[in-house]
Amino acid sequence: MPSMINIQRRRLLKFTGLTAAMAAAYPFLSYAEGMIGMGNQASSDFDPDVEIELKQEVVDIPIFRGPETRVWKVFGKVLRGPKTAIVNHAESYIAPTIQLQKGQKVRIILKNNLPAQSILHWHGLHVPSKMDGNPMYAINQGQTFVYEFKVLNRAGFYWYHAHTHGVTAKQVYSGLAGLFIVSDEEEQALDLPKGEYDVALAIQDRTFDDQNQLYYNNHMMQRMQGFLGNQIVVNGQPDYVLPVASRAYRLRLLNGSNSRIYKLAWDDGTPMTVIGVDGGLLERSERHAYIMLAPGERREIWMDFSGKAVGTELTLRSLSFDSSMSGGMMGGMHGGMGMMGRMRGGMMGGMHGGMMSGGDLPLGGDYAVLKVRVSKQVQAQDKLPERLSTIKPLRLQDAANADSPRNILLSMRHMSALLNGRSYAMDDIRDDEIIPVNTLQAIAFDNGFSGSMGMGGMMMSMPHPMHMHGEQFQVLKREIDPRFRAGYETVEAGFVDSGWKDTMLVMPGEKVTVLKPFNDYKGVFMYHCHNLEHEDMGMMRDFLVK
Q1: What pTM, to 2 d.p., does this model score?
Q2: Which residue, among 180, 232, 183, has the nearest Cα to 502 in the 3D structure?
Q3: Per-residue 3-state assignment (H helix, E strand, C coil) for 454-512
Q4: How many CB atoms lie within 10 A of CB 433?
Q5: Residues 49-61: tens digit of each pLDDT
Q6: Which of 59, 299, 325, 540 could form a disulfide linkage to 508, CB 3.0–4.6 angstroms apart?
């Protein structure tokens, strides 16, 4: 780890002198104030409603019997405002849950006591560029970064995590991620389950060695495929069992895994009733036989356990699907987990005892995620509201580039993960990545729909969960190359594209077009693959909003 951080530091130091041309053209970016290790101090003219301190520490926690597990953990404390703004999870590696109201002004004081540089990103929140957690603002051990912003987002289930260049995957894996829940008046007026009946569940996969320590290998094959652990953990706990009463629940699901994609369904065939996505409640609930949940995505579901006897158990499973959907030259190899899944479970299975492949949990496999057990009977007459929220639909004709959507080609080649053939660099914003502020933009993410897969299409057709920082967007349409149709049918019914999103899964051979506003704030906002290994390999770029 120290060698990796030293290499990272040397790599990042070369960016401290951004070009004079960039600074002259876009002086509002204030790069000189916010480069690596500079930190950020509290503003004298910002009067927060809520002030929070977050400390990052190296600690040992009990996860299994026997030796405690060393993790990188965040501890939270409310310095001003309601104490409910922070919920610490003492016996888990999960970072504190932050709970705020729309309209509140918040100051978050991040103190880095880790033996590495680090910075936190508020995933899904609409905040100023300097407060967004861009890797260029990473702070060193012993330094402090102060975030100050007004909560502009509607009620929703957001989250936060490390976003340190080149080591995001390892830092998130080590524990630097937590939940961020926003409420507002529209949501509070609804009769949705509250308190103990509103449950947030962070789903991740991890591998532990025989000393209960987190195992993470940075081998090139793992980086190309994305890390797959051999054990599912929920809220930092293995073999998770959720005790429930015989009534309705609001279950908030986060895929906090590095690269694992889930196809979630109840084992008794009960439909998944979706009431919310990344950016909050839908207008009306949707029923799906299963839901796809890619890294970074969130889903809120309504689940009614009334009428079930005490002792009844249900299992939330991830069902099998074709994870490679190989088309063209590989088109005859559909079925089951796809070739990439079989490679992980077969050829790679013997490496490190299956650690690299996820062992018995290959991508696209069938396995249990968590168990629900009815533990008590209660009297309740819960009714799902017919209308949940009001969402103004975005229209293509209102986009500044309606006739020519920005096309972003996703590719894996030359041992790199690329966007439009480019890898990440802090001082490398191109003309097609400059966006006028207060405009609506049509953006298409092309994962081989146009016929370009990288390496001639051979074995490099991979799903990519694409995330854009800043304001939420709306999905306009999905298009699939007919060569990939058979595999696509194993996941298609699980997409929930209604409402506001900040992350969406783009399957091999697919092009997804979205409409994204770029309002209020100028500066640099990232877009990248949320397969964290792909992000660290360079599948990340910046938009410059000016």
Answers
A1: 0.90
A2: 180
A3: CHHHCCCCCCEEEEECCCCEEEEEEEECHHHHHHHCCCHHHCCCCCCECEEEECCCEEE
A4: 19
A5: 999 999 999 999 9
A6: 325
